[in-house]
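Supplementary notes (optional reading)

For those who missed the lab, this is the record we used. Protein: Sugar isomerase. Length: 399 residues.
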Amino acid sequence: MPASPETVFRALDSFRIETPSWGYADTGTRFGKFHQPAAAIDMDDKLADAAHVHRLTGCCPTVATHVLWDFAPGVDASVVASKAQALDIRIGSINPNLFQDQLYKLGSVGSPFETARDQALAHILDCIRIGKATGSRAVSLWFADGTNYPGQDSIRERKHRFEAALKEAHAHLSPEQILLVEYKPFEPAFYQTDLADWGMSFLTAKKAGPQAKVLVDTGHHYLSQNIEQIVAWLLDEDMLGGFHFNDRKYADDDLTLGSIDPYQIFRIFHEIHFFAWERGGKYPDIEYMIDQSHNLKPKIEAMIQTVCTAQELYAKAALVDHEALVQAQRKGNIVDAEMSLKKAFNTDVSVAIADWRGTKGLEADPLAAHRASGYAEKAAVERAKRRQELGIATEHSYA
Ligand code: PSV
Ligand code: MN
Ligand code: MN
């Protein structure tokens, strides 16, 4: 099936995806970090890298921030926002850090210790304030909270502590802000995670207030779980706030989107297009965000690869013939219904996407444009020098 350029253009015109500040810096697994000379050292570098990705792709105008890593204590958040603006991007979701402090050993807002709960709530309220100062919409909550052994704490008490904290946080939101509540089945808690699945996030968000919604991180599910069904239910309940996109083979691997199962991401996007089609083309307000930080791939290349994959799968999913799909569904014609999806998935949209980029004054191939720009090489030289001056570890040389 040839790609209908109009449909692809329309889909891409409205598609934005947020890149994460932590995806530009040296991060790693719990086993170690492999340093890259071009990795961002500070927030200025992260903003510069995010702006570079946006310049090449035209669809990443915001950058997600992780508060403890990105906003040094005492730094005026609005200054950071102005720096972003000067680079033609904006500060996107604000992510509190509720897992690194020693006080959070037994949890943050779910901890049995009041001092830990108070500190966690105060930090969330700080994040809401930073969100207001930076003009960002989403405060995105991910909790490492849980227990490691049966009997360690009361599961119901922990639930109540969560409900109280999120209700209090919600009361501090401005009318423009939203609170995203992310779930994850396990890790770092290995017996019970307080917000382990979409149902737990859903109920907690509902109790917090109308501006709280569920965040679906594609890597935070058990293997073979039907994520698009979760998406369809959340859409139907007006409770889908956003995504953290990544791919995985085993668990929370944070691999490049679509590297393992692109059809799954396509099916998720299909649910969204289908939902909007039924509503006369009105799309829900969803924050599309990337949650990946590559330890081995060059960071900016991995980010561009991810963004392009997201655009491709979003465009393909827009090509589903909804009329034909509904007709087939009504007749119980399973093969034709399924083929409506398959046909769209198998359509080559690369030319249409390259043409769309042309209409926006963008290079047809953002990855090639990045490589030709020399940006990473320049950053590597400058940042390696700065790292040396600052006494920060640098890449091991195999030479
Ligand atoms: C930890 O699992 C995690 O990957 C969550 O997905 C968060 O969204 C992310 O870190 C940033 O805090
Ligand atoms: Mn996430
Ligand atoms: Mn994760």
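If you only remember one thing from this example: The first helix runs from residue 5 to 13.
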